[in-house]
């Protein structure tokens, strides 16, 4: 019994957590608990705007800020998401708004993409066209915090975060942002100004035409994404009622400071920046 926890309990979601926990019921319960407990300490992302009809969510999708790259069914490689950091108006959207939409597709990936569970997933941060203002708006602590949540709580395998097309003028300074990431995650992060770097991570033919690939256009991909999100309408409506309330927790917090990037109270632990 977990009176502090109200969690989704469909066969689909339970099987995902069980599979990631090697079918240990106790480990699966702990993973589900951590999933909701860590969401609760990132309220700027996990809030009442995570709905499929939210105008901000739809606008971000239609702008092509986030691209979930479709792989062939027989492909067993990692799932791939491209985030185009220079493609949105920073006066209109905060980076947390972009991460919020990314979190929704992350959960869809968790529920239906076997590749993400078995082979993991990659995030490509395309920095084409970014300015100093864009970099300042990146909210590095939020990026680091959300990455830690994805690593600790999601029943998927985070394989890497790769920043590509970083303007050479910013490359040295940008690498200092790596100091925000905990050690284990930092090892999976790369920074490059080389426009060809994306092909080292993703087979070229999977990419949209704008990236030199042959998987349709970015507009085709965003239309597919919007349709996919719409099919999860009831799921995200239900998610508004799920979560963890530590005030009702009977056992000690599972946020062991020796194992977690979060402190006992759920606050994100600070790291020394090189």
Describe this protein's structure.
- Helix 1 (11-20) crosses helix 2 and helix 3 runs antiparallel to helix 10 (218-230).
- The chain has helices at 11-20, 25-40, 55-63, 95-112, 114-118, 132-136, 140-153, 168-175, 183-186, 218-230, 233-239; strands at 5-6, 66-69, 79-84, 121-126, 158-164, 189-191, 243-244.
- It has 11 helices and 7 strands.
- It has a domain at 52-235: CRAL-TRIO lipid binding domain (Phosphatidylinositol Transfer Protein Sec14p), CATH 3.40.525.
- It is of the alpha/beta class and 274 residues long.
- Mean pLDDT is 81; it is low at 256-261 and 263-274.
- One of its GO terms (molecular function) is phosphatidylinositol bisphosphate binding.
- InterPro entries: cNMP-bd_dom, CRAL-TRIO_dom, CRAL-TRIO_dom_sf.
- It comes from Drosophila sechellia (Fruit fly).
List keywords for this structure.
274 residues, alpha/beta, Phosphatidylinositol Transfer Protein Sec14p, five-stranded mixed beta sheet, two-stranded antiparallel ribbon, 11 helices, globular, disordered C terminus, GM13594, phosphatidylinositol bisphosphate binding, CRAL-TRIO_dom
